[in-house]
Amino acid sequence: MALVRQVITSLARDGTDLLGTRSLAVKIVDESIVSGSLLTVESNHFCVLKSRGAVLEVYETGQFALTTPDKPLLGSIAQGFFGGSSPWVFEVIYINRSKLLVRSQGVATSAEMAEMAYQVDYYIHVDTKAAALDLITHLPFNGQLIDTKEVADYAGPAIEQAINQIVQVTKMEDINAHIGEIRESVKSHLTDFLHIFGITLNDLKVLIMPKDERMRELISLQAIGLTPIEAVRYYLALRMADKGLVSAPNAAAGMPFQIGVPTTGVYPVGAETGLSSGI
After folding, report:
1. What DSSP string runs through 194-253?
2. Percent of the chain surpassing pLDDT 90
3. How much is the pLDDT for 68?
4. For a Cys-Cys bond, which of 98, 134, 162, 246 suits 185, CB 3.0-4.6 Å?
5. Cα–Cα distance, 258 to 264 (Å, whole number)
6. pLDDT at 271
7. Contact 49/43 with Cβ under 8 angstroms?
8. 138 DSSP β-pair partners
9. Which of 52-61, 71-80, 173-182, 186-195 has the lowest mean pLDDT?
């Protein structure tokens, strides 16, 4: 039985891209790829052809007729010696050239050992044929795909190190004042790290905030000009208001709440009428 030539493409039957917006590379292994098979490479892809671990060619945009070492092994020869299938197993690897969004998240500690949650969003792309080879050489496949989550997992330690170098020696309230310095540190470390994998770093954004939600709210209250004590009182008042307690305004003002007396406002400490309960 003669081997059938075919068209190899990165598009599914419904026209969707196998790589999409989350995959950096996809591997297609097909024993029916023979000499004369047509390899189609889209404008936003590179394509690497491998055989038994060796790279045969790297393709850019276009359609190419493959010339492979299995040309003589047809019909009864292939059937007799290899059970009807070609002995040459070929891998066609498509690499995404488009910009892809990657997100890395983690926790750093400030100078006071307070936990700070960080989020780094950055765009990456593979720029050249040489970079495409670096990618498939240094970054292993997770099954048939290399996706952005795998890139984030590999880059995570480099990002954490760059952030901690500054955050660990900075007071929590001063971290945002150093956000530009932190961003440049992350960008430098990440650029060097991704270069090994043939990946080019584009835009990058860094967001750092206290991991504890209560701490974030207290810092937000101080940011509008309240003193630390006033911020605590207002935070307490907001929580009391959420529970429907009528004494919430008194907590914000730092005044006691009077019980049993018609009230028209907040009474000062030392009022002689009614029962007082300090908050």
Report:
1. HHTTT-EEEEEEEEEEESSHHHHHHHHHHHTT--HHHHHHHHHHHHHHHTT-TTHHHHHH
2. 46
3. 60
4. 162
5. 11
6. 46
7. no
8. none
9. 71-80
Residue spans of the domains in the chain: they are: 7-96, 100-211, 215-277
Residue type, 188: S
CATH topology (fold) of 100-211: Tetrahydropterin Synthase; Chain A (3.30.479)
**Sign of the C-alpha dihedral computed for residues 249, 253, 259 and 263 taken in this order:** negative
End-to-end CA distance of the chain: 90
Q: Is the pLDDT of residue 243 over 50?
A: yes
What does the alpha-carbon distance between residue 158 and residue 165 come to, in Å, rounded to a whole number?
11
Q: Hey, what are 113's tokens?
A: 């050992």
C-alpha 160/C-alpha 247 separation (Å) is: 44
Mode of pairing for the β-strands spanning 115-125 and 145-147:
unpaired
8 A C-beta contact, residue 183 and residue 204: yes
Report the chain's mean pLDDT, rounded to a whole number.
82
The pLDDT of residue 268 is above 70: no
Question: How far is Cα 136 from Cα 94, in angstroms, rounded to an integer?
Answer: 10
pLDDT at 69: 59
pTM of the model: 0.73
51 versus 154: the higher-pLDDT residue is 154
